[in-house]
Amino acid sequence: MNEKSHPKSAITILECIIRDRGVGYLWRGLTPRMIEGIFSGGVLLSSKELIHSFLSDFVSPLVLQRVGVTIPNSAIGFVSGAGGGMAQALIMGPTSLIVTACVSANQQDGTPKSAFRVAQSI
Asked: What is the DSSP letter of 110?
């Protein structure tokens, strides 16, 4: 295998993209990805905070009262973060499909396509 058909490193790939397509190509599809990022971060943080509040304000006092054991804050934080990540993956999975389809559709003929139109065609 030669280096032209199989670049060996991320730096080499980056150099090839910039040389062949220009620096602007690195940000192609930025708008749909930014919109996805806004919602993705919102889903992650809001669901993590909801889970954290539920565990801290309801579950932990109940466990202390009935079992006599305090749930450590680190365990509550870990479970909250994991739950937030799962909610993010569950809710944002279809959105990632639409974003990828938008970027692909825009690259095919160079004409921008709306996420709504792309979602209708999927």
From this structure: S
Which two three-digit tokens encode residue 29? 């599809």
**Is 106:113 a contact under the CB 8 Å cutoff?**
yes
Q: What are the structure tokens assigned to 20, written together? A: 């062949």
Q: Provide the 8-state DSSP code for 9.
A: S
Taking the C-alpha atoms of residue 27 and residue 115, their distance in angstroms, rounded to an integer, is: 17
- DSSP-assigned letters across all residues of 33-91: HHHHHHHHHHHHHHHHHHHHHHIIIIIHHHHHHHH--PPPHHHHHHHHHHHHHHHHHHH
Give per-residue pLDDT as tens, 49-100.
999 999 999 999 999 999 999 999 999 999 999 999 999 999 988 888 877 7
pTM of the prediction?
0.67
- How many residues in the chain? 122
Which of 103, 27, 37, 107 is closest to 115 using CA atoms? 103
